[in-house]
Write a structure and sequence with these properties.
Layout: E1 7-10, H1 12-22, E2 28-32, H2 35-38, H3 43-55, E3 58-61, H4 64-73, E4 79-81, E5 100-107, H5 116-128, E6 134-138, H6 144-153, E7 160-164, H7 171-177, E8 178-183, H8 198-205, E9 210-212, H9 216-222, E10 228-230, H10 236-244
Parallel strand pairs: 1-2, 2-3, 3-4, 5-6, 5-8, 6-7, 8-9, 9-10
Length: 245
């Protein structure tokens, strides 16, 4: 009814395919975010992605590692890197907001590739070392209840707060008040991995100290950034040590 000129589909599968089938022949621009490439493996999915990319007017990826993976799937298609944006006026350091000693912060969707389960294990280890820290977990996702139960079983009820979703406008002060932001992203068991990591960009923009995982997207973003500790998110001792340091 609206007669749009261009359709922009986020994720090649299924949205890109739906846009191509139902778009009435209009040009389709597809943006890959990661899960549609890393988590969907096998010849069937590769063929599906190739069908979408060959018929799209343009294809973009939110990060270079994702672009490289997508290009190997569809070598005849030019894939451009176009990251998602971050408002650097809103997300910036602010001298008027005080850092809360011992406050750790995680922001992101609660799914396996984000590594929150490993973060809780590391927090339990830090608690046994008598390190006074408190973790705020901002975000929603299918793992929320299992993570909450994990926190209870580890005796972290008083040390972890599951805040839930939060409006983007309220996030800058959360970053500024955190003594350390911990984003232990990793590759999940099904192969899913981060395509960009916009919360990492937001934290960097706010001048936060960071502990991050060894995901390709995070390493690309933090290569020349001071104040960033990198570790294997699944090595609990290393993760706890990085947070303590």
């Amino acid at each position: 009814r609206k007669q749009f000129d261009v359709i922009h589909a986020h994720w090649l599968v299924p949205n890109g395919a739906i846009a191509l089938v139902c778009g009435g022949g209009r040009p389709v621009v597809c943006t890959s975010h990661g899960a549609d490439v890393f988590a969907l493996r096998g010849r069937l999915w590769e063929g599906f992605r190739r069908w979408v990319t060959r018929r799209s007017f343009a294809v973009t990826a939110v990060g270079e590692p994702l672009r490289a993976a997508l290009t190997s799937t569809a070598p005849d298609q030019l894939v451009r890197v176009l990251p998602m944006g971050c408002d650097l006026e809103r997300f910036s350091p602010c001298a008027g907001v005080a850092v809360q000693p011992g406050r750790l912060l995680f922001v992101g969707r609660l799914v396996p590739k984000k590594g929150v389960d490993a973060l809780l294990d590391a927090l339990a280890l830090l608690q046994r070392r008598q390190l006074r820290v408190h973790l705020r977990v901002i975000g929603e996702g299918p793992e929320r209840e299992s993570l909450r139960q994990q926190a209870i079983s580890l005796g972290l009820v008083d040390n972890v707060q599951f805040v839930g979703g939060m409006a983007n406008a309220n996030l800058p002060d959360e970053y500024r008040q955190a003594e350390t932001v911990v984003l232990p992203f990793r590759q999940a068991a099904d192969g899913d991995a981060e395509g960009l990591g916009l919360t990492l960009i937001e934290a960097l923009a706010c001048g936060c100290r960071l502990v991050v995982g060894h995901s390709a997207a995070q390493e690309e973003l933090t290569r020349d950034c001071p104040g960033v500790w990198r570790c294997d998110a699944d090595e609990v001792l290393a993760l706890a040590g990085a947070i303590e340091a």
